[in-house]
Amino acid sequence: MSLTSACCNTPPTDAHWHLKGKQTPLSQKIAGQERTTYRTGPKDSKRGIIAIYDIFGHHDTTYQFFDRIAESHGGFQLSAPHIFHNGAATPEMLGDRPRLMAWIGENGDYKKSHIDEIIRVAVEDLRADGCTSFSIFGQCWGAMIAVLAASEEGTPFLAAGGPHPSFFSVDLVKNIKTPLIALASKDEADMVPVVAAVQAKGFAVDSFHQRFDDVHHGWTGGRGDWTDPIQLKQGLVAVDLLGGFFAKVAAANESKL
């Protein structure tokens, strides 16, 4: 598995967005510490989504992306936990791959950084608020986290994936228990073998892949500038594809109940 090169040299951006959700405490402490999550979307929806931001944490474009997905395809209750308790990656780390990889190892390890616990609590909080089905996606490094969560035995998730994924490989998805959605920018490696490996598992809903060759890595998150009309256009396409995919797997699950 490798980190997309653009992840090491593309800085975060700011694009103003009026948040439609709110910061909410998680119901349980994680490693003895209070943690929060960004909750957005219609509170009467029974479909839940866990969203994992990229290494730059929450930015206005990230919030906009999450808010728009939560409002798409009939609505979802979306929870985006604050993963980086000691602060997100900084622009000063860009261009220094060893430093950035060391930072991810220290702050973004699925088990060591208690991300698995954070996700489990966020899911239970959504369940307590009426959600009966769950999907998970992430941006960049967060898409890898989504796959790891969907590879757990007894995972609650029905689908996983995300835009501009890093660290994706056939080996990463060998234990995934759900169909996969991968939305690659021009900077990512070929996702076809990874998606094909998941497709071969024979899930009821087909996995999905689309490449966006006119936008860069990170365009839906901390590196996105949606004042740029191309990034906005393709960002809205990504919103529609993710929301549609998660609605489809939720509907397929409901048909089995």
Poorly predicted runs: none
Number of strands: 8
- Spatial order of strands in the largest sheet: 1-2-4-3-5-6-7-8
The oligomeric status of these chains comes to single chain
What proportion of the residues is helical, as a percent range? 25-40%
Instruction: Note the total helix count.
Output: 6
CATH architecture: 3-Layer(aba) Sandwich
Largest sheet: 8 strands, mixed
Structural class: alpha/beta
Q: Can you tell me the CATH class?
A: Alpha Beta
Categorize the overall geometry: globular
The N- to C-terminal Cα distance equals: 37 Å
Alpha carbon gyration radius: 17 Å
Mean pLDDT: 92
The CATH topology turns out to be Rossmann fold
InterPro entries: AB_hydrolase_fold, Dienelactn_hydro
Protein name: Dienelactone hydrolase domain-containing protein
Pfam families: DLH (PF01738)
GO molecular function: hydrolase activity
Q: Would you kindly provide a written description of the structure presented here, covering whatever features stand out?
A:
With 257 residues, the chain is α/β, with parallel strands linked by helices. It has one domain: Alpha/Beta hydrolase fold, catalytic domain (Rossmann fold, 3-Layer(aba) Sandwich), CATH 3.40.50.1820. Helix content is 32%, strand content 17%. An 8-stranded mixed β-sheet has the order 1-2-4-3-5-6-7-8, sandwiched between helices. Strand 5, helix 4 and strand 6 form a beta-alpha-beta unit. Helix 1 crosses helix 6. The protein is globular. The N and C termini lie far apart (37 Å). The model has no long low-confidence stretch (mean pLDDT 92). This is Dienelactone hydrolase domain-containing protein. GO terms for molecular function: hydrolase activity. It holds the Pfam family DLH.
